[in-house]
């Protein structure tokens, strides 16, 4: 089943998450129509290879053309229209930057895998539960309801101001009419009656002025309360969700809803500001003793301006944190002289601001680093699919400044991966007579000068964003706090779900907890130090826990990803636990686990039964990425042979734990079937005898452990069959036990 087919079968809450990251940059129609083709391409590699990205882009356009021809014959007008639009987008937007579309598609596929992994995990961790709190959802609905009510109140006040204006114009006309009469006419009874009517009208005017000012004051108060409490909490919650999403957690939505709230409040405040300006205009035409306008209007206007300043300042946010396109799953780790992208948004979406706000990007204030590339750009509504007022910097590069002695500071292998920096952004908004300076900053980033520093830098990013919601604590690692073990384990599971498409279950997490604590613990409230996680070596080892785990992630990603996604790699299980699991199983039952003593190694252990009925276990020497680069792991499991005493070589691996036939589990991942290899021809001819590598181990009578499994013999199955016809098992054993001399 294709990945897209699995996505379509998700529950609605997960489908809503999928919907969030498909937009006009990569329309969902194309993902749906070209699902199998898209999944069969290596978009992640293309994201770092411009030539490959260009080829894939051209092939993508060809695929769209083929679909366009098909739907044209079916006369599907809507789909024809959409496909033509997509084709124009692909040719226009990405022709000059094909790697960008490769990054987008790679990210979409990765997020799909993460969501599929999250959907398959029955239990939510404490962090994810906190992010999906029902109280938070209720507050979101309350904010939207109150913003809508405030907007309606401001519009109703507009009608009151218009009524007041009409009433004053009538009063002004009637008053001037009386003033124009001769003195004798003013003494008439009719005029005196009119004067009494004018006095009553003036009283009504005074009442309506007070009423309008009161309504304006209440609208301002409601906006003030909403901004000070619920809206601020909503924004802080969104920023916290963004932090969690950056370290592999659930996708953070809600920014469009926040934009709608901020925009409606800004529109309401500007509407109130216009109402106060209209009252000032009415004041210049008519005033009187006890007039409330000159007393109340200045205070109300000052409060409106203050709220607008605060609203604009809070609305300037980093929508997408700094990230190198070459490492999309490791945001906030930046390598010197390598481009990174970052996107900002102004949550107040007003047409008057389109292309009017220029944003400048800088880094730190210590002058150690500078940003190269285009660091000043204008915000606009054209580049975002949802029309938000945003700007994306795509060509920024951090560069370390030379010291006065002419050498660079700490650049090189010793650059500190616990040193935090910040990318800052500033701009100015000039609107309706207001000038507002805006500033915001990215979450702390870690600078590296070599990709070998990336694992430890990423550990720093994880620890920071797990431990604090402070967006700018650059001295955090001067005294890093401990983290709750239960939350850390949840984040570690996210590393697997986001990076390799499948998270960790409770048994796997328990093993990691024991690895960290050195014993079985109840880890709900246990506090783990930063040093224990990333600084101190594991007992008896020359590496830290994090280095060990990161090597496993790299191994999965590059060599056993399909097996991991299928759930056939138990992986995190101790030697003691694996023997407990296997001891009562059918001989030939095996499981796959990651090596605890070798970085980036995977091994398999199978159970066997001796003639006297005793159970014995055999664990093969771990395979590392060097060996797996030469032979796929699924093929190793298929072809693995063991020679025991005088027996012929045979494959001891029969059933994947608990009882899955090996070929049923791994058959679809075999690169080819052994019987597909042709037998050597008698005539020899000009070709060579076809061959494959066969992993063989030898187990002696007095040993329960095999020798090295790395003796990969360049022998095809057909050649081996011929040898068996002419040689005894003892002769074959002797042959495979000898070292091959160079020819």
TrEMBL record:
SMART domains: STAT_int. GO terms for biological process: cell surface receptor signaling pathway via JAK-STAT; defense response to virus; negative regulation of developmental process; regulation of apoptotic process; type I interferon-mediated signaling pathway; type II interferon-mediated signaling pathway. This is Signal transducer and activator of transcription. Belongs to the transcription factor STAT family. InterPro entries: p53-like_TF_DNA-bd_sf, SH2, SH2_dom_sf, STAT, STAT4_CC, STAT4_DBD, STAT4_SH2, STAT_linker. It comes from Brachypodius melanocephalos (black-headed bulbul). Keywords: Acetylation, Activator, ADP-ribosylation, Coiled coil, Cytoplasm, DNA-binding, Isopeptide bond, Methylation, Nucleus, Phosphoprotein, SH2 domain, Transcription, Transcription regulation, Ubl conjugation. Transmembrane segments: none annotated. One of its GO terms (molecular function) is DNA-binding transcription factor activity, RNA polymerase II-specific. SUPFAM superfamilies: p53-like transcription factors (SSF49417), SH2 domain (SSF55550), STAT (SSF47655), Transcription factor STAT-4 N-domain (SSF48092). It holds the Pfam family STAT_alpha. Residues 564-666 form the SH2 domain. GO terms for cellular component: cytoplasm; nucleoplasm. Gene3D superfamilies: EF-hand (1.10.238.10), SH2 domain (3.30.505.10), STAT transcription factor, all-alpha domain (1.20.1050.20), STAT transcription factor, DNA-binding domain (2.60.40.630), STAT transcription factor, N-terminal domain (1.10.532.10). It is found in: Cytoplasm; Nucleus. It comes from the Eukaryota.
């Amino acid at each position: 089943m294709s990945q897209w087919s699995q996505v379509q079968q998700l529950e609605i809450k997960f489908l809503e998450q999928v919907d969030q990251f498909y937009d006009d940059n990569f329309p969902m129609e194309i993902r749906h129509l070209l699902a199998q083709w898209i999944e069969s391409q290596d978009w992640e590699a293309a994201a770092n290879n411009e030539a490959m990205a260009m080829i894939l882009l051209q092939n993508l356009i060809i695929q769209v053309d083929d679909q366009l021809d098909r739907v044209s014959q079916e006369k599907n007008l809507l789909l024809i229209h959409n496909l033509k639009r997509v084709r124009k987008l692909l040719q226009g937007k990405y022709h000059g930057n094909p790697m960008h579309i490769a990054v987008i598609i790679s990210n979409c596929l990765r997020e799909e895998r993460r969501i599929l992994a999250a959907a398959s995990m029955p239990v939510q961790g404490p962090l994810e539960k906190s992010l999906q709190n029902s109280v938070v959802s209720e507050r979101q609905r309350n904010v939207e309801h109150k913003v809508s009510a405030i907007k309606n109140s401001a519009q109703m006040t507009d009608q009151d101001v218009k009524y007041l204006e009409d009433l004053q114009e009538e009063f002004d006309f009637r008053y001037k009419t009386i003033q124009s009469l001769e003195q004798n006419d003013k003494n008439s009874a009719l005029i005196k009656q009119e004067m009494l009517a004018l006095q009553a009208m003036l009283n009504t005017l005074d009442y309506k002025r007070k009423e309008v000012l009161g309504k304006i004051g209440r609208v301002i108060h409601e906006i003030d309360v909403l901004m000070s409490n619920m809206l601020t909490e909503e924004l802080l919650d969104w920023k916290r969700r963004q932090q969690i999403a950056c370290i592999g957690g659930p996708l953070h939505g809600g920014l469009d809803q926040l934009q709608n709230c901020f925009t409606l409040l800004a529109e309401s405040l500007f509407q109130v500001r216009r109402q106060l300006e209209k009252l000032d205009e009415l004041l210049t035409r008519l005033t009187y003793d006890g007039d409330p306008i000159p007393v109340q209007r200045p205070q109300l206007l000052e409060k409106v301006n203050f709220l607008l300043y605060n609203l604009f300042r809070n609305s300037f946010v980093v929508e997408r944190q700094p990230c190198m396109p070459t490492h999309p799953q490791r945001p906030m780790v930046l390598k010197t002289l390598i481009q990174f992208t970052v996107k900002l948004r102004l949550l107040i979406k007003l047409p008057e601001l389109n292309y009017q706000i220029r944003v400048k990007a800088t880094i730190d204030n210590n002058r150690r680093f500078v940003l190269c590339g285009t660091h000043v750009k204008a915000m606009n509504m054209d580049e975002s699919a949802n029309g938000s007022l945003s700007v994306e910097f795509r060509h920024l590069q951090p560069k370390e400044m030379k010291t006065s002695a002419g050498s660079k500071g700490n650049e090189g292998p010793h650059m500190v991966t616990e040193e935090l920096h910040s990318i800052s952004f500033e701009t100015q908004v000039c609107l309706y007579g207001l000038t507002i300076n805006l500033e915001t900053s990215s979450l702390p980033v870690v600078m590296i000068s070599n990709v070998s520093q990336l694992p430890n830098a990423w550990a720093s990013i994880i620890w920071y964003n797990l431990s604090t919601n402070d967006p700018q604590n650059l001295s955090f690692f001067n005294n890093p706090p401990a983290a709750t073990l239960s939350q850390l384990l949840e984040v570690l599971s996210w590393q697997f779900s986001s990076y390799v498409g499948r998270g960790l279950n409770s048994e796997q997490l328990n093993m990691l907890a024991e690895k960290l604590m050195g014993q079985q613990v109840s880890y709900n409230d246990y506090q783990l130090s930063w040093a224990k996680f990333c600084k101190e070596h594991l007992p008896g080892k020359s590496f830290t826990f994090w280095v060990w785990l990161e090597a496993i992630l790299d191994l999965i990603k590059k060599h056993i990803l399909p097996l991991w996604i299928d759930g056939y790699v138990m992986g995190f299980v101790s030697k003691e636990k694996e023997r407990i699991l296997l001891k009562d199983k059918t001989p030939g039952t095996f499981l796959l686990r990651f090596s605890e003593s070798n970085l980036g190694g995977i091994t398999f252990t199978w159970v066997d039964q001796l003639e006297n009925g005793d159970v014995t276990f055999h664990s093969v020497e771990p395979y590392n990425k060097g060996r797996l680069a030469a032979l796929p792991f699924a093929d190793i499991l298929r072809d693995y042979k063991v020679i025991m005493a005088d027996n012929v070589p045979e494959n001891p691996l029969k059933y994947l734990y608990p009882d899955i036939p090996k070929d049923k589990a791994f058959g679809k991942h075999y690169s080819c079937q052994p019987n597909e290899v042709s037998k050597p021809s008698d005539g020899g001819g000009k070709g060579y005898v076809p061959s494959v590598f066969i992993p063989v181990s030898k187990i002696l009578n007095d040993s329960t452990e095999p020798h090295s499994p790395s003796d990969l013999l360049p022998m095809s199955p057909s050649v081996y069959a011929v040898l068996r016809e002419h040689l005894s098992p003892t002769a074959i054993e002797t042959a495979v036990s000898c070292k091959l001399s160079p020819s």
